[in-house]
Amino acid sequence: MADKKYLIEINHVGKKFGDLTVLKDISIKVKEKEVVVIIGPSGSGKSTLLRCINGLEKPTSGNVFFDGMPVNGEKNINEVRTEVGMVFQRFNLFPHMTVIQNLMLAPMKVRKISKKEAYDRGMSLLRKVGLEDKADYKPSQLSGGQQQRVAIARALAMKPKALLFDEPTSALDPEMVHEVLDVMKEVAEEGMTMVVVTHEMGFAREVGDRVLFIDGGVIVEQGTPDEVFNHTKEDRTKLFLSQVL
Ligand code: ADP
Ligand code: MG
């Protein structure tokens, strides 16, 4: 049985694509309101791991629980995706819809809330991310940083229990990175449970409760930001940090 006090439980997860082993025996438990930051080189399996949490990938071995429920089978996976928002590197807003329509769609369709409630919730979230005046714009009329703030607002509109971020600032021009990280920090401070894959070490240090360094599909090192960044134990972690800091 999955322990209830953990919102996300990853138990001995392995993942292969054909002959390629991408994840090897990964176990991570994330408590409610915890912010776990995952760092690691490109190709180390970070995205695959995140995708196993909401059922976008199926582990080859081991299992994942969300809020005590196994993440497998269509019914459970649909429920998990309702409760777990995901923000990707590339802004994945619906291009033919306005910003406010992007925010209203899933809450109306999936949560069955009224149009008025969806609108009010959407506008209040746009206010929160500083984009109330862009409600009627199309995504293409916004900067990358603004689109990513809309993507976060859209995820929040579903009132998720947890949010997953997969390198949310990697595709942004440098001057737009901070505005997205600021919104993420605010969301974390409000108590959202978050798993964040990022190369932004400042964010990891400041906002992360725990930092995990993944390389070659295994957790090489984990601890508080102070432990991982200031008292690094493993040579592989030291090498990686020397390259990104
Ligand atoms: P990261 O996010 O850390 O850069 P990924 O999880 O995206 O790493 O990828 C890890 C490895 O798995 C890479 O070698 C990648 O090419 C491979 N991979 C990812 N998804 C697939 C897939 N659907 N089919 C085959 N190989 C994949
Ligand atoms: Mg990735």
Automatic annotation (TrEMBL):
Is Amino-acid biosynthesis found in the keyword set?
no
Residue stretches spanning the membrane? none
InterPro entries for the chain:
AAA+_ATPase (IPR003593), ABC_ATPase_HisP-typ (IPR030679), ABC_transporter-like_ATP-bd (IPR003439), ABC_transporter-like_CS (IPR017871), MetN_ABC_transporter-like (IPR050086), P-loop_NTPase (IPR027417)
* Membrane-topology descriptor: Peripheral membrane protein
Q: Which SMART domains match?
A: AAA
Ranges for the ABC transporter domain?
8-241
GO MF terms here are:
ABC-type amino acid transporter activity; ATP binding; ATP hydrolysis activity
What Gene3D superfamilies does the entry give? P-loop containing nucleotide triphosphate hydrolases
* Cellular component terms per the entry's GO annotation: plasma membrane
The entry's family comment says: Belongs to the ABC transporter superfamily.
For this entry, the protein name equals ABC transporter domain-containing protein
Q: What is the lineage of its organism?
A: Bacteria, Bacillati, Bacillota, Negativicutes, Veillonellales
